[in-house]
Structures are given as structure tokens and as C-alpha cells.
Automatic annotation (TrEMBL):
GO biological process: protein transport
Stored InterPro entries: ExbD
Protein name (record): Biopolymer transporter ExbD
Keywords, alphabetical: Cell membrane, Membrane, Protein transport, Transmembrane, Transmembrane helix, Transport
Residue stretches spanning the membrane: 21-38
Length: 132
């Protein structure tokens, strides 16, 4: 009697787990790349300070121009639009803002921008200066 030969099962390449891993890697690299994109800055004459410290990378840099106009990510906004923009940023308690005002900007404009940030619920506000 001849031994019964079982038919060998062929190996299968499961593609579904491989697709899952590839999508995970794609999302991971997209999230890392978004963190590496920097904001464009304006050429402002910032006031200088001997006690200036490096701040963590903020979510938003608010540029106050000489005429009092606020610019965020290349868009010019009034104070109401700024408050609405910051309030729609998800969890505003974790939103970090740095205000960069030209040294010729009146202090009242600077205070109005800070007030608009606080109305939106932002509590982490930094002030940009040049180190001397």
C-alpha cells in the first residue's frame, strides 16, 4: 500500500494587514510633516529685551503691523475675526499664541489683540522680542 500523500497547502499572502500597516505609516508621516511646516514671518522691527527667552513653537503667530492690522498665517483680520478664528481651533486652552508687534505699534493695539485672544479662551500668550 502506497503512503497517502497529502496535498501541500500553498502559502497565501494576506494583503489586508499589509494595507493597514501602509496606511498607518502614511498617516504617521503626514502628521510629522505637518509639524515641520513653519509659519512665514513678516519683517518687523521687534522691540529688544535683555531677558528674552526661547518660547515653544506656538500654534499661531499674530503679527501686528504698523497700521494696527493683525495678520495670521498670511490673512489680515480684524479683532472680531481673530477672536472667532482662535475660538474655532478646537481646545483653546491648549492653543499657544505668540504676538509679534512692530515697535512702532501703539500699545493700545497690542492690548486689544491680547484681549481678543483672551475672549477666545486662549491662555498661553507669548510676546516676541529680539534678544540684545
Amino acid at each position: 500500500m502506497l503512503p497517502v500523500r497529502r496535498q501541500r497547502k500553498k502559502g497565501r499572502v494576506e494583503i489586508i494587514p499589509m494595507i493597514d500597516v501602509m496606511l498607518f505609516l502614511l498617516v504617521f508621516f503626514i502628521m510629522i510633516t505637518l509639524q515641520m511646516i513653519t509659519d512665514k514671518g513678516l519683517k518687523l522691527q521687534l522691540p529688544s529685551s535683555s531677558e528674552a527667552k526661547v518660547l515653544p513653537h506656538p500654534h499661531f503667530v499674530l503679527n501686528i503691523l504698523k497700521d494696527g492690522v493683525v495678520e495670521v498665517k498670511g490673512k489680515k483680520m480684524d479683532l472680531q475675526a481673530l477672536t472667532g478664528f482662535l475660538a474655532t481651533d478646537g481646545d483653546v486652552t491648549h492653543t499657544q499664541v505668540t504676538i509679534a508687534a512692530d515697535k512702532l505699534v501703539p500699545f493700545k493695539d497690542f492690548v486689544h489683540v491680547m484681549d481678543a485672544c483672551q475672549k477666545a479662551g486662549v491662555t498661553a500668550i507669548g510676546i516676541a522680542t529680539k534678544a540684545t
